[in-house]
Every structure is written in C-alpha cells, then in structure tokens.
Write a structure and sequence with these properties.
The chain is an alpha/beta fold and 479 residues long. It folds into 2 domains: 231 residues, Aldehyde Dehydrogenase, Chain A, domain 1 (3-Layer(aba) Sandwich); 194 residues, 3-Layer(aba) Sandwich (Aldehyde Dehydrogenase, Chain A, domain 2). Helix content is 48%, strand content 17%. It is built from 19 helices and 18 strands. The chain has a 7-stranded mixed beta sheet, with helices on both faces. Helix 3 crosses helix 7, helix 6 crosses helix 17 and helix 10 packs across helix 11. It is globular. This is Aldehyde dehydrogenase. GO terms for molecular function: aldehyde dehydrogenase (NAD+) activity. It comes from Rhodoferax aquaticus. Keywords: NAD, Oxidoreductase. InterPro entries: Ald_DH/histidinol_DH, Ald_DH_C, Ald_DH_CS_CYS, Ald_DH_CS_GLU, Ald_DH_N, Aldehyde_DH_dom, Aldehyde_DH_NAD(P).
Length: 479
Amino acid sequence: MAIISPAAAADPARMQAVFERQAATALRLRGSSAQERIAKIRKLRDAVIANTQAWYDAAYADFKKPQGEVDLAEILPVCVEANDAIRNLKKWMKPKRVWPTMLTMGMRSYVQYTPRGRCLIIGPFNYPVNLTLGPLVSAIAAGNTAIVKPSELTPHLSALICKVVREVFTEDEVAIFEGEADVSQALLALPFDHIFFTGSPMIGKYVMGAAAKHLSSVTLELGGKSPTIIDETADLQLAATNVMWAKFANSGQTCIAPDYVYVHASVKDAWVEHCRAQLQKAYGTSLAEQQASPHLAHIVNARHTSRVKGLLDDASAHGARALIGGGTNEADCFIQPTLLDQVGPKARILEEEIFGPVLPIISYQDINEVIGNINAGQKPLALYVYSRNNATIDKVLTHTVSGGACVNHALMQFLHGNLPFGGINNSGIGNAHGHYGFKAFSHERGVVRTQFSFVATLFAAGEVPGLVRKAMKSAFKFL
C-alpha cells in the first residue's frame, strides 16, 4: 500500500475528491449485511491488538502515558466496543416492530435502522485511540463510510492510528487525514451526513455551527466542570482511592475527571489525609519522585502545561493554598498532583475546565447549598457522589442534571458499555457506546406497510366521519 504523506493527505482538493468518492460507497453500504460489517470490525480490532507495543511506545513518546493506562483506557475500550458490536449487530440491525394504533389497525409498522451515510469523526488528544477508533466501530456497525481526523497534539499516536486505518480500510470506505486546525476546518466545510466530535465545549460550538450550514446531524462529546460530593457518611478511604485515581489518571486530562470536590467540613481533614497517603503510595512523596514515576502521565505539550500552571498561579493569587503538591516543571510538561484549599470565588480555576492534575477542595455544611451551586453552573458531563445515606444520594440525583453519574465510584459510567455515554447541553449532545453508538450513526426510519386497513374499510362504508366526531367529543370532555 502506498504511503501518503500528511501534507498530501491534508490537501483540500484531495479531501473533496475522497469525500465525493465515498458517496457511491455509502449508497452501496446501505445494503451491507451484518456479516460484512462484522468482518470489518473484527479486522480493525485485530489490528489494534496487533499493534499493542507500538501503542505503548507512541503514547509514551507523546506524553509519557503509562502502559497500564494505555491498556485500560485506550486499547481495551476499543476492543470491548468491537466485541459488543460483533456479538449484537445482527440484533441491532433487525427492524423493531411497533404495535399499531387505533387508526393503523391492519397495518404492519416498524422502525428500520438505516445508515446516515458519509460521516466525519474528529478525535481528541487525551485518549486518541479510544475516542477516535471507538466511534469508528459504531460508524462501521451502522453501515456508513467515514473520514477520520485524529488530533495533531499527539503526533506519534496520530501517525499510528493512520497506519492502522489505512491497513484495514480502503479510502472509499474509511479515509483519514492528519493535520492542524485548518484540516478540521476544511473537512467541516463538506456536507457530511453526520459529524461525531470529541473535544471542548468551545470547539464543539464551532463544529455545531459548521454542521448547521448543511443541517448535518451531530454527536458532540464535550466536557465541563464535573463535580464530586463527599458527605459526612461516606467511606473516606474508598472516596480517596477512587477520586485520586479518577482525577490523576492521564494527569487529569480526562473529560469525565472530577473537576472540583465538595467535602463535608466534618470529614474534610480526614479525607485529605487519605488522599495524601494514596498519592504517595501511587506516585512517590516528592516532586522529583512523582515527575519520574512510570505511573503518572505528563501534560500533552508546553502550551497546555503553561495553561494549567496559569490556573494554579491565578488560584494562588486569589488566596488558594496547596494542601498537597503544587510543584511544576514546565520544561518537562509536568504538573504535580495537587489539591487546593481556600480557592477564592473569582479564581479562574473554579470557572474553567482544568483538564490537568489540579483539584480544588471546597468544604460545605448544607447539601442544599451544594446542589444550588452545581445548578448555577453549566450542566456537567459527569457527577460523582460518595455517601452511605440513600436520602442524600437520591436528593443529589433528583435535583441535579449531568450527562452521567456514579454513586460511590468514578469513571465507571464510561466503562459500562451497556449504558449511554454523553453529555447534555454544554457538556454534549447525543450518546455513544454499544447500541447507543450504533443508533447515533443510524437514522431511525418509521415504516408502515399496509396489509389490511381497517380505517380504509370504514371510509368506504362512510363510517369514519361519524367515528371521528364521536372520538373528538369524547376527547373534549377531558379538556
């Protein structure tokens, strides 16, 4: 297979030509069988597994991501997504029978799942394998063509994703283009049938605006400030272990990571000490030890490192003090795992998504005040609550809104492939994973097939007008 340079691949004329060629393929794939789609998904899964060591090397080269995190958060989710589709695709593709209504007696009705057509998938930098190839599995399962744009911020992983995609697919089915933001802009100018974007809310708004010009449907997996609540009844050791893992995996560069924590004042100090012990056990006690830890990823590049350090400096200027950590090494793109206390209300770190290993801690007394504060902000992608009090748990889940939630755990709503994963409003639009991912890339077409029409028979007999008048009179009685 000929090797295509990134510069050549990113040529707008070439993107247009590939997009136009995929039109004929998209029409052909409408009639593709479950077996044909499964064969392609299996081939992609096997290629991902075959490149395991290469994924390790590329992830370390891009941001020193530990091998364990590559296994758990990159390779495994793609394989699970693929295996789920392989097992269930025949069932997913089967038309869903719908019972007739009074006016459609004698007719057969069903929902038919048809491919959306030509799809665009724009992947992020934080989990580039998982969040680029996972949606691709869903697009293939639904019978679409796709053009994929991996993140330019992880060049080694991006190059390997390109290699795998080009080995598995022909360009008229799945094409891939590397490059900077101008490549994404050129692709977004094309009239795709569906766009699947994972990234920040700010860029998500731009993607949605571009899609609106062609009335393209979108799935937007975004982010935001996901809160965590730890009440006075919580298992503090469990809450410390979970939250420290969820926050500092991938050095905090996770869209569903806890972004700030409300801790009941009566247990705050004890919980922080559990966190300290957990962090020292996992990564070491000093800045030097943690910077050299093979279990702690670094920030993706110098620009993002400077951005996170800027949030730290601004928080300090607004009165914050580091309970744990606080050190930085910008030359090595390293921010020490940090817990902040007494952050002033005007600090940027309480307004902007952190996307780094810094966690503000806020003590509270009244859970109603916490709920009010959460509701005063944008709807988050995730919400976590640690409590043994079912009334408190129910109150939080009833009176807040978030894309997903966990009780006495964190991140598991993403790893559970049978749940819909997605945000709401500022944190996203639409769902992904498993059957929900298949439906995201499918059009649910309502179909009615007439066999014997009870209504038509009544029309012929002149009975329908009288029946309609009787039905309307009955309905009006309840108005």
